[in-house]
Design a protein that fits this description.
Elements (H helix, E strand, L loop, with lengths): L10 E3 L5 E3 L12 E5 L4 H12 L3 E6 L20 E5 L5 H11 L7 E5 L6 H6 L1 H20 L7 E8 L22 H20 L2 E7 L2 E2 L8 H13 L6 E3 L5 E2 L2 E2 H13 L6 E3 L5 E2 H11 L4 E4 L6 E4 L5 E5 L17 H7 L7 H16 L1
Parallel strand pairs: 3-4, 3-6, 4-5, 6-7, 7-8, 8-13, 9-12, 10-17
Antiparallel strand pairs: 1-2, 11-14, 15-16, 16-17
Helix pairs in contact: 1-7, 2-4, 4-5, 6-8, 6-10, 8-10
Length: about 375
C-alpha cells in the first residue's frame, strides 16, 4: 500500500446516520487508547461510550442492523464526535467481529479494550426466543474470544464480558458474591452462564486478559421501554397527564438490587484497568421490590398508593381519588421466577475503589424527570 490509502472498512456516522468512508494514513501510529464496544446503541453502551470519549479513547462501535426507525437514539448526541466510529455487524457473525477488531488494531495501538455489551438482554423475551438468545448471548461471546485469540496483537487486548446477576437465579446464598454458586432460571441466564464460563476458560487456557462483570440490575432514563422500571416510569407520567388509566405489572414481590447505569459503566472500565484479570460483582447491596419502585415513581408526581387484595387480585389505589392505578397481569410473570437478588460488591470496592453514587431514590427521580421531559 502507499501513503494515504483509504481503509474501506472504517466508517464514520454523521448526525443524519449516513455513512461515509474515512481516509486513514496507514503509516500514522496512535498512542491514544482504543476501545471496541459491541451493543453500543444500548443503555450501557451509550453511557460507556460517553465515559470512554471523555477519557480520550478512540471508540469503535458495532451496530446491529434492525427494523427500528431510530435504533441509535441513545448515541445520537455522540455521532459527530471525531473519535467515534460506527460499523454495522453482529457478534453472531464471525466476520463482523474479526473486521472491527482489525480496524481497531490498524494503527498498532499499545492497548485495546474490548467491551462486549451485545446481547438479547430481556429475560421474558428469552423464554420466547431461547435459540436466538443462546446464539447472541453465548455463541457470540465465543466468536469474540476466538477472534482475539487468533489476532497478532492478542497480548494487548483486554476483554470485558457483560455478565449478569440472573446467573444466581434460584439464589443459593444471600447476598450473592463472586463465589456464590450459580442457578440460572431462564434461557437468558443459561446462555449467560455459558458466556461466563467460556470467558473464564479462555482466560485460564490461553492467558488472555478476560473478565466477567457480574452486574446486578442497573437502570436509567435510557432503559428500554419493555423493562419493568422504564415501563413504570413511562406509565406513571402518562397517567398523570391523563393519557393512560393504569399500569399492569407482574410479580410485585420480586426484589432487585437496583443501581444507576452510569455508575456501573465506570465499574466496567475499572475492571479493565486492574492489575489482574478476574471476575467482579457490581451491586449496591440494597434491595427494593417492584411494589416499592411503583410507590417511589407515583410519589414523585404526588400520588400516594394504598394496596388492596393479594396475589393476582392485588391493586394499587390512589389514596386521594380512589382510582385504580396498578393492576397485576399474569402475562408478565416468568415461567420460573427469580424472587430476590442482592449483591455483595466488597471485592471491587476494596480492590478497585469503585462505589455506586446514586441512591434508589435518586435513580427513580432521574428516570421520572427524564420521562416528564419526554412527554412535553
Amino acid at each position: 500500500m502507499t501513503r494515504g490509502v483509504a481503509m474501506q472498512s472504517v466508517w464514520e456516522c454523521s448526525k443524519r446516520e449516513k455513512f461515509k468512508v474515512l481516509s486513514i494514513n496507514i503509516y500514522r501510529m496512535s498512542a491514544d487508547p482504543v476501545a471496541i464496544v459491541t451493543g453500543i446503541t444500548g443503555q450501557d453502551g451509550s453511557y460507556l461510550t460517553e465515559l470512554l470519549l471523555e477519557k480520550g479513547y478512540t471508540v469503535y462501535g458495532l451496530v446491529r442492523r434492525c427494523s427500528l426507525n431510530n435504533n441509535m437514539w441513545r448515541i445520537q448526541h455522540l455521532l459527530n464526535k471525531s473519535r467515534l466510529f460506527i460499523q454495522y455487524g453482529d457478534v453472531t457473525d464471525v466476520s463482523s467481529v474479526t473486521s472491527i477488531l482489525n480496524v481497531a488494531c490498524f494503527h498498532n495501538p499499545p492497548k485495546v479494550e474490548f467491551y462486549n455489551l451485545a446481547a438479547q438482554s430481556h429475560v421474558q423475551r428469552s423464554f420466547e426466543m431461547p435459540a436466538y438468545t443462546l446464539q447472541a448471548d453465548g455463541a457470540g461471546v465465543l466468536n469474540i474470544l476466538e477472534a482475539i485469540r487468533a489476532h497478532p496483537l492478542k497480548d494487548r487486548i483486554r476483554f470485558y464480558q457483560a455478565s449478569t446477576s440472573e446467573l444466581y437465579g434460584k439464589v443459593q446464598e444471600v447476598p450473592q458474591k463472586e463465589t456464590t454458586p450459580f442457578y440460572p432460571r431462564s434461557p437468558y441466564g443459561v446462555a449467560k452462564l455459558y458466556a461466563f464460563w467460556i470467558t473464564k476458560n479462555y482466560r485460564e487456557s490461553y492467558g488472555m486478559f478476560a473478565v466477567n462483570g457480574i452486574l446486578f440490575n442497573h437502570e436509567s432514563p435510557r432503559r428500554g421501554e419493555d423493562f419493568v422500571t422504564r415501563k413504570i416510569t413511562k406509565a406513571v407520567c402518562a397517567i398523570q397527564a391523563g393519557k393512560q388509566e393504569f399500569v399492569a405489572v407482574g410479580n410485585m414481590d420480586a426484589q432487585r438490587d437496583w443501581g444507576h447505569a452510569k455508575d456501573y459503566v465506570e465499574g466496567m472500565w475499572r475492571m479493565l484497568q486492574a492489575g489482574e484479570a478476574r471476575d467482579w460483582v457490581l451491586a449496591t447491596g440494597q434491595t427494593h421490590s417492584v411494589r416499592e419502585f411503583l410507590e417511589e415513581a407515583f410519589g414523585y408526581v404526588g400520588i400516594t398508593l394504598e394496596w388492596e387484595g393479594s396475589g393476582l387480585d392485588e391493586i394499587g389505589i390512589c389514596v386521594a381519588t380512589g382510582k385504580v392505578y396498578v393492576r397485576v397481569d399474569p402475562a408478565f410473570f416468568r415461567p420460573a421466577e427469580v424472587d430476590v437478588l442482592i449483591g455483595d460488591a466488597t471485592e471491587i470496592r476494596s480492590k478497585l475503589g469503585w462505589t455506586p453514587t446514586t441512591t434508589f431514590h435518586a435513580l427513580v427521580k432521574d428516570m421520572m424527570e427524564s420521562e416528564g421531559n419526554n412527554l412535553q
